[in-house]
Amino acid sequence: MDKTALVGADFAAGEEVLKALDQSELKITVALWVYSSDHEDWRLLLTSRMLDSLDLQDAYRLVHDRLSQSGFPAERVPPVIILSTKDPFVRTLRRLFAKAQSVAGMRLGGQSIGNRFIEDAYALRIS
To answer: Considering 20, 53, 76, 111, which has the largest number of Cβ atoms within 10 A of its Cβ?
Structure first.
């Protein structure tokens, strides 16, 4: 199966989403593009301790509300995946890259991290 390419404009949209969420004081600890084999497209994966305290539906609502309040156009919001900071994938990812100066632009893929196989990923932030 051919995988949809993630192009520069998509990368930029992820960075813009992250910037808007930062400005809204929603501290995102992990942000990366991941290729979802289930959906056959790229998804912006986000984690935040602030989202952990909410049920998943409310977490998605908060992200979209914060983006909307910041003036981010709804039609430019990419498909999002929210994971808990306690998820084994997130914990392993953060442990692996804890000492890295910057992971922005790092490609990951073809490996299992925590409890997930990552076919392809592009890191924006891992802290």
So the answer is: 20
